[in-house]
Amino acid sequence: MNITLQSAKMIGAGLATIGLTGVGAGIGIVFGSLVLAFARNPALKQQLFGYTILGFALTEAIALFALMMAFLILFT
């Protein structure tokens, strides 16, 4: 394999994983908001937790998409 192509793949995969920093911040925001909302109104615990899990799943889907792109760049 050409060294230029290999280095371009490495750079592209690294750039594809930049989205993971936003995901880390997003997950922190989701669970931080859960703590704040629960502190304000503990009676809504079950409903708040359901919304939190939904937010976590949607945020994590972005992370999986970014990793999938990085692996596709590296191994194709």
From TrEMBL:
Location within or outside the cell: Membrane; Mitochondrion membrane
Membrane association type: Multi-pass membrane protein
One cellular component GO annotation, for this chain's record?
mitochondrial membrane
Instruction: Give the main localization category.
Output: membrane
InterPro entries referenced in this protein's UniProt entry, alphabetically? ATP_synth_F0_csu, ATP_synth_F0_csu_DDCD_BS, ATP_synth_F0_csu_sf, ATPase_proteolipid_c-like_dom, F/V-ATP_Csub_sf
Signal peptide start-end: none
Keywords (alphabetical) are: CF(0), Hydrogen ion transport, Ion transport, Lipid-binding, Membrane, Mitochondrion, Transmembrane, Transmembrane helix, Transport
Q: Give TM regions.
A: 12-39, 51-75
Q: What is annotated about its quaternary structure and interactions?
A: F-type ATPases have 2 components, CF(1) - the catalytic core - and CF(0) - the membrane proton channel. CF(1) has five subunits: alpha(3), beta(3), gamma(1), delta(1), epsilon(1). CF(0) has three main subunits: a, b and c.
Q: What is this protein called?
A: ATP synthase subunit 9, mitochondrial
Q: Which organism is it from?
A: Compsopogon caeruleus
